[in-house]
Amino acid sequence: MDRGIATFTLDWGKCPRWLFDRMVYLGKEMIHAIVLTYGPDEFIKRIGDPVWFQSLGTVLAFDWNASGLTTILTAALKQAIRGEEKDLGIFICGGKGKTSRKTPDEIHTWGDRLLLASNTTTSLEYNSRMAAKVDSALVQDGFQIYHHSFFFSRNGAWTVVQQGMNTATQSARRYHWHSAYVHDLICEPHSGIVSQTRVKRVLDLTSRKSTHNRQTGVALLGDGYRTIAHDIQMIQSHRTPLSHTLSFAFGNDRYTAVDLARHEFSYHPVVEERFWDSLYLQKMLKLVCERKPVTYEAFLAMPGVGPKTVRALALVGEIIYGARPSYDDPARYSFAHGGKDATPYPVDTKTYDNTIRFLQDIILKTRVSPLEKNKMFQRLSLLGRNAVQ
Predict the structure, then answer these.
(1) Across the beta sheet with 90-96, what order do the strands follow?
(2) One Pfam match, by short name (predicted)?
(3) For tag attachment on the chain, is the N or C end more exposed, with fewer CB atoms within 10 Å?
(4) Are 54 and 63 in contact (CB under 8 A)?
(5) How confident is residue 154, by pLDDT bands cut at 50, 70 and 90?
(6) To which H or E segment does residue 166 belong?
């Protein structure tokens, strides 16, 4: 499975009740067939593949490529297994908006009901929280996370599906994680790549190219707050060792790292003593310096550490110490934009073919009527043709 992110148009509409009920019904049949044939861990693994996830949504009748597929499909699957979770060995927590913030509580509740070891439940809760933090703070691509769901099996396999929105570009981006592919929560943890659009410049601190910057950040925190404050004063006074850095887009604007840093560490022009406008940022940097986290993951996991604190530390590391992070979008290629003539790049037909064959096998094993199976096969056939257009 390749690594990456899926991007979609932002959908403001509402799924009609008849469609949602249909997806619940078909989703239940698909899940039963998958678990019976391959086991619960295979279902969790498949959900972690954005191509398969997208294909499943299409087969279940959500046939337009919009952000609603993520939220509606997740809600439909959660509803489909309600009351059967223990029998299936599959558990789905979280969802859209306020429901996403209840994810750790839902995991904890299932841990109690399943009599899981306390360290197992704690680990699942931690992975859920860190996935949300990584995609909101370490991947700063202009998409605000508003949907977070956590799928796990009784055996401990887990998958995260979360989505962010960018209202300025009217688009949404979906992030997939799967436990089997997460060797490091903060270094390239995502599973699968499917994207329709790419952002020209993204502050991506999950990239291996950002390793030096992360290491420099941990070292700075260990040196103490005075060191960081002194470095920020150098940036404010324009006495930076690196006068030129590659420009990048942040939000809808374009900056150099120095431009962005001077905005982050702004000071009041009237009073003599320079100070930051963001008192919260000062407070957070002081707090993390006092606790001296020994790893970057421990720094990120601290309560209150978010995009602004992460960005501030990354900018100091780049501008003062030359530890440049990655500004490349983690999304690497697109099925939608690929072509049979390899323009602008080849379509990964092997991945799509495997997905289609798997879904064909599962449709045959479902207990739905022949007419319903025929409709599902037709949608699957359409998906296959669109994959190579």
Answers:
(1) 5-9, 171-178, 158-166, 144-153, 90-96
(2) DUF763
(3) C
(4) no
(5) very high
(6) strand 158-166
